[in-house]
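Re-run with default settings, no changes from the original entry. Doing this only to confirm the output is reproducible before filing.
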Amino acid sequence: MTYLLNALSLVIELAFNLLATLFVLRVLAEAARADFHNPISQFLYRATNPVLAPIRRVIPNWRRINLAALLLAWLVMVLKNALLFVLLGAAPNAAGLLVLGLADLIDFVLVFYLVLIFGWSLMSMLQVDSRQPVLRLAGAIVEPLLRPLRGRLTVGMIDFSPMAVMLVIVLARILIAAPLLDLGKALTLGQ
């Protein structure tokens, strides 16, 4: 029975993380003003707009941040954690689930940025065609993080700004996301 629970929890994690990825990408692409003519940006818009359009009437954007998509990503994480706790046979605390969902979303976004910056750096070193849609979208999303350090951490022809940003993200996971995850788990279990 444990093997079946492990497999089911993996499927739940994967499905909800993919759904959260759509909403997080929508938030980041809009915040970074990614090119709307990019086929990936158009897919994100078409995939998320049926759900977001009614919510955006009630919850407008704040500056360039799509609060409706952010709210839905958070709710996806809350629902994922609730299902995982119920699957394990635990009765989760609602307030703890809300904190755990927020912590899980923060950690998810930080890991997402780590993977995105690493992939973007690797593709830019390999001289991939700059018109490639994935590279254009990734570049638009990581540029706001790299811009403050661009040119300041260059040695020869190598720019170390992606490495510095990745180090800050890893530290944020250790110092912000991990304690929040621990607090959310403790509150959820009622400890």
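Residues 55 and 68 are 6 Å apart (CA to CA). The beta strands are 154-155, 158-159.
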